[in-house]
Amino acid sequence: MKKILKRGFLPMTMAAAVVLAGCGEGQEEGTGDEGGADDSDAEETEDSGENYDDLTLEDGKFVFALSGEYRPFSYIDENGDLVGFDVDIGMAIAEELGLEGEPYQISWNSIILGLQDNRYDAIIGSMGITEERKENVDFSDPYYYSGAQVYTRSDSDIQGLDDIDENTEVAVAEGTTYHTMIQDYTTDIVTYDSDVVALQTLAQGRHDAVVTDRLVGLINIEDQGLDLELRGDLIDEEQMAIAIRHDEDELLDAINEALEAIHESGKYEEINQRYFDENIGEN
């Protein structure tokens, strides 16, 4: 197995404690968590003549949402800090905009509703571009590429997606593209709030397979020592992008320009290398 998780990286720490998002029916909680770009970074970018305060909900801040349950893209570390690739990308974009970055943790099932409710400016949470989601949000240019993959225990006879049928119990994270896709193969589906929990329960002997992101599966198998294996070919390729509300074209343009800037400056590559041994920003 190719090693794709970078060991020994120093995650970006946050200045405030994170409260986990509630996911009970009819109850949605999230929390902003300040950190990352300091005042000097913001002032330096403001000197360029651009002012993006009018494009965000709160003057001087760029608040972006993620689940915090999608290691290594967003998760709570041993110090209680919200860290990960998506967190670092969001903070780098905020710095390019001359704003203070503030990640906001919320359950995945509520993340689009929270955006439409004006709780935050954007979603930077490994959200794949789909036609269904385009009905509710606008997407930036892709900021990384991955795809769906089948995982099983090492003693399983399942060799890939074609071996999944009505007799196969598959675990997925609720509300994901994997949840939608696997319904074409089986109705015996168990859902979790987190892809990582689905993988852990599979390793504990429950379910027959998990469908999740290729990178998330490989990294959590390596990081947690799970006795699981990747099966078959990549099911599809997903383009992960930043989601914002419809009709906020100026903010969308600013985010795309910031993405281009962090690629050109080498900041994107620096962040990528903290977590991966392959460039996930290349198609």
Q: By CATH's scheme, which homologous superfamily of the largest domain applies? A: Periplasmic binding protein-like II
Per CATH, the class of the largest domain reads Alpha Beta
Identify the overall geometry: globular
Taking the alpha carbons of the first and last residues, their distance comes to 21 Å
Keyphrases for this structure?
five-stranded mixed β-sheet, seven-stranded mixed β-sheet, 15 strands, disordered N terminus, 283 residues, globular, alpha/beta, D-Maltodextrin-Binding Protein, domain 2, 2 domains
Overview of the molecule:
The protein has helices spanning 39-46, 85-97, 111-116, 131-134, 177-182, 195-203, 214-224, 249-265, 267-275; strands at 31-32, 61-66, 69-70, 74-76, 82-83, 100-105, 122-128, 138-139, 144-146, 148-153, 170-173, 189-192, 209-213, 228-231, 238-244. The protein has 283 residues and is an alpha/beta fold. It folds into 2 domains: 31-144 and 239-275, Periplasmic binding protein-like II (D-Maltodextrin-Binding Protein, domain 2, 3-Layer(aba) Sandwich); 148-231, Periplasmic binding protein-like II (D-Maltodextrin-Binding Protein, domain 2), CATH 3.40.190.10. Strands 1, 2, 6, 7, 8, 9 and 15 form a 7-stranded mixed sheet that branches. Strands 12-11-13-10-14 form a 5-stranded mixed sheet. It is globular and about 60 Å long. The relative contact order is 0.18. Residues 1-29 and 32-49 have low confidence and may be disordered. Residues 25-53 are annotated as: Disordered. It holds the Pfam family SBP_bac_3. One of its GO terms (cellular component) is membrane.
